[in-house]
Design goal:
The complex is a heterodimer.
Chain A (H helix, E strand, L loop, with lengths): L4 H13 L14 H8 L4 E4 L5 H10 L7 E5 L4 H9 L6 E3 L3 H49 L3 H15 L3 H9 L3
Parallel strand pairs in A: 1-2, 2-3
Chain B lengths: L16 E5 L6 H8 L2 H4 L4 E5 L3 H9 L5 E5 H9 L8 E6 L1 E2 L2 E6 H6 L6 E4 L5 H13 L5 E4 L5 H6 L5 E5 L2 H7 L3 E6 H4 L6 E6 H6 L1 H19 L4 H11 L6 H5 L9 E2 L5 H13 L9 H4 L1 H4 L3 H11 L7
Parallel strand pairs in B: 1-2, 1-3, 7-8, 7-9
Antiparallel strand pairs in B: 3-11, 4-11, 5-12, 6-9, 6-10
Helix pairs in contact in B: 1-11, 1-12, 11-17
The chains are: A mainly alpha, B alpha/beta.
Chain lengths: 181, 324
């Protein structure tokens, strides 16, 4: 991602010298999401001051299905800021200048960290969903016990039967029952 | 010197306080405080750093390359929540502005109406522009518009290239696109939420602690600049300062559009928790905030606001004061 063609070419050469493949160079924000998807990029490299920064962020915030690590390079920047950015443990990494020797390592670390971060996020979302599902099942059972005068094991069996006849999971059956479907 | 509240605790040899801003009329309190010597008058060395993009400004603030900044209110909330992938503790300095954004449409969009899939520029996903544009589009019955983020000064070019069909950005950029005869300003965000809180001054939390006197001094100077800007007799000089410092290529009338009946920009000293709470509601509705962070935690930077203390220090000085 670079608005300056000459610099973009220099960065391409630098990256390819370290064994990376540059699959696309985007000079601006036009069709950014499609370009990222079609190019199959593993990582996006961008200057910290590039005008396309906000669009890259928007891609992350608005198109949650296309997450990619973004590696940022800053020409202005102090070492302590770089380590602060690294400690943030997210997709953004700040490196002073573009020294080819360090670039590849930085990109690899960025991709690994990003995957770990995404996995953690997915895990958290899964954990939250599991808790919500359990609450929903408990609530459906309480409703069945109250409205149908069932005991707890009876309410459980009723939900199980509902899930079986509708060929859905217990959680979904509970949700459907609670929503009067 | 119009302002005299040199703070005895400010060390003259301390490093300059670095304040970031994006070229917009609502950065005026910072630009004017520098131009009229208000920072010096409070005994502070401050260095303004113009930034290209909101994301770049946000990173520099979060990673310590800036001590404070001119900031979109929703972006300040996102930073506290880590919603953009980066988290930082902030302390509000003071409010900067209310209203001030315009919705601009290209001639083609005006002619054919906004079709499904129309592309509209916003300045950042976490911005008043984004949330209020969504409302405006809903009211117009436009569905499936695609938001595309770009820095405000780049919007007119993107319209000219046909990349976007219109945009919502802060003054003076909608009027600048109109002056380039690319289309027309059709509404202001002031009509969608009258007097909505727009920009604020924020410091990194550790700066507000460790360099509290400097942060208070900067806040006082910026509050004084805001009061100066609100006086109608200063309008002409304010526009000249903005042109020289931020918009050398724009005519005065375009810069002054910020104060017209559509944009209705005003400078406000307070950044209230009530205003921030309404942005929290908008952000939650858009799914932009993690659901497990409580409003109270998000509002912590507002609870630490330096504005009341800075205003108290400014009060005795204003007698012989800022406007005399």
């Amino acid at each position: 991602m670079d608005a300056e063609a000459a610099r973009a070419q220099a960065v391409r050469e630098g990256l390819e010298a370290t064994g990376c493949t540059v699959v696309a160079i985007a000079p601006d924000v036009a069709n950014l999401t499609a370009r990222v998807r079609d190019s199959g990029a593993n990582v996006i490299v961008c200057d910290m001051d590039d005008p396309s920064r906000d669009a890259l962020e928007a891609m992350r915030a608005l198109n949650r299905d296309e997450p990619r690590p973004v590696v940022l390079f800053a020409e202005r920047g102090a070492p302590e800021q770089i380590s602060a950015a690294l400690e943030a443990g997210v997709a953004a990494y700040v490196v002073e200048g573009l020294s080819p020797a360090r670039v590849r390592r930085v990109l690899e670390v960025a991709i690994l960290r990003f995957r770990a971060h995404e996995a953690l996020r997915a895990e958290l979302a899964q954990a939250r969903a599991t808790i919500e599902e359990r609450d929903r099942i408990a609530k459906a059972k309480r409703r069945l016990m109250r409205d149908e005068g069932l005991s707890e094991p009876e309410a459980h069996r009723r939900l199980q039967r509902l899930a079986m006849t509708r060929r859905v999971g217990l959680g979904q059956a509970a949700a459907q029952y609670l929503n009067n479907i | 010197m119009p302002l005299d509240l040199s703070l005895p605790n400010l060390r003259p040899d301390a490093p300059a306080l670095r304040l970031g801003c994006v070229p917009l009329v609502d950065a005026a309190p910072l630009l004017v405080a520098e131009a009229l010597g208000f920072f010096q008058a409070v005994g502070l060395r401050a260095a303004l750093a113009p930034e290209t993009s909101w994301a770049g400004l946000r990173d520099r603030l979060a990673f310590g390359a800036l001590d404070g900044a001119h900031l979109l209110t929703p972006l300040a909330l996102a930073l506290g929540a880590g919603a953009g992938g980066i988290r930082a503790d902030l302390a509000v300095g003071c409010g900067l502005s209310r209203n001030g954004n315009g919705i601009f449409l290209s001639w083609r969009a005006l002619e054919t109406g906004l079709r499904p899939g129309a592309r509209l520029g916003i300045v950042h996903p976490f911005s008043a522009h984004h949330y209020l544009l969504r409302r405006w589009l809903a009211a117009q019955g436009v569905e499936d518009a695609v938001p595309l983020a770009a820095p405000p000064p780049a919007m007119a070019d993107l319209v000219a290239q046909g990349v976007i069909d219109g945009f919502c950005a802060g003054a003076p950029w909608p009027a600048a696109a109109e002056a380039s005869r690319l289309g027309r300003v059709v509404a202001g965000t002031a009509a969608l939420w009258p007097d909505h809180p727009e920009k604020l001054l924020a410091f990194r939390g550790d700066v507000a602690e460790a360099r509290r006197e400097a942060a208070l001094a900067a806040t006082a100077a910026i509050l004084a600049a805001g009061a100066w800007l609100n006086a109608p007799e200063n309008r002409e000089e304010a526009v000249a300062i903005l042109r020289r410092r931020a918009f050398p290529a724009l005519p005065d009338a375009v810069i002054a559009s910020a104060f017209d009946g559509t944009h209705r920009m005003g400078f406000v000293p307070e950044a209230t928790a009530e205003g921030a709470s309404r942005w929290i509601a908008e952000m939650r509705e858009a799914g932009h905030l993690p659901p497990d962070i409580a409003d109270a935690a998000l509002l912590a930077p507002w609870a630490r606001s330096l504005q009341p203390e800075a205003a108290r220090r400014l009060a005795p000085a204003s007698h012989h004061g800022v406007t005399s």
